[in-house]
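From the shared-data thread, chain only:
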Amino acid sequence: MVNRPDASARFGGDTVQVRNTALALRELGLEVDIVETETPDPRGYDIAHVFGITEPEKTARQIDVCRITGIPVVLSPIWISYAEFFARSPVCERALSRARTASDARRALGRIACRPTHQVASWRTKIRTARIESAQAKVLESADLLLPASANEAREYALHLGVRDKPFVIAPVGLAFDRLPTWSQNRSGVICAGRIESRKNQAIVALALQDEPIDVIFVGEIYDYYGDLCKKWASPRARFAEPMKQPELFELFAKSVVHCMPSWGETAGLSAFEAAACGAKVVAGDRGSEMEYLGPDADYADPGDPESIVAAVRRALKRPPRATGDALDRRMHDLTWRRAAERTLEGYRLALGAALT
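Structure, as tokens:
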């Protein structure tokens, strides 16, 4: 299994996916090694499984090296189109930086949300996005088989990248239910857990919830300037916490009423699923694959519109209290790493079978 070189240093959902899928595959009897490098050594292996195409030039190098020995290469794209994110996020952040009052910021974001994406994007952004997506399409075409995490992801790369002729097996992400705490009956506040960065959209969440009479906690590592922008618009009842290890984070999920992270796009949205499995209600973005997993048992918001976000949080708060075994809990219990490993193994067998014919 080949992941990005900084996967451990810049921990993310892909890191969780790789490690837990590997563990579950080992329990199925496979010998699995994980490397985090651009130049893996494929000698002695039957198959190479590469993860992520966010940085296509790096993924291309990983695949090219794995091709040296002629073994099949399976690819988990972990992909969704970021065309809207690249177009809207910088414009929204400029508006948040320049606005002096929350009312000014909300009006500016409302105007941006009403404009079509192609009108918001600069020519430079359009050229950059086209260049990146062209490279990503080539990387997808170079693999023997694809392992998208959802049907929506497969549709996304077919629609936006034009890759329709590659065999694929859908391998949904899983959850580690043995690590989940007992649900608390005394819940309070909204939690937003994830790297504090532009794509996760915490700054607009902070603005949206600024006047709400509820405590908000943002948990995650802060990247670059973005943390200051989030803190500028956060309410006095909001606080920011450093990244937490899973047991501590899960305990916080189990004590929170709502997990709110309407990001600009998630291939799955592991933190939302973990929060849901710990009994929290969920507000997610409407741009990624979260709806395929969460269905009607969560609330959704336009990531660029603070009014949409606060309305979704209010809807979530009005939902009946969660109870173990409810519809959302049943959805989450369908997500196991063993199931993910079984679907992954199905993909391996198809790729190996094709290589032998």
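The CA atoms of residues 117 and 244 lie 35 Å apart.
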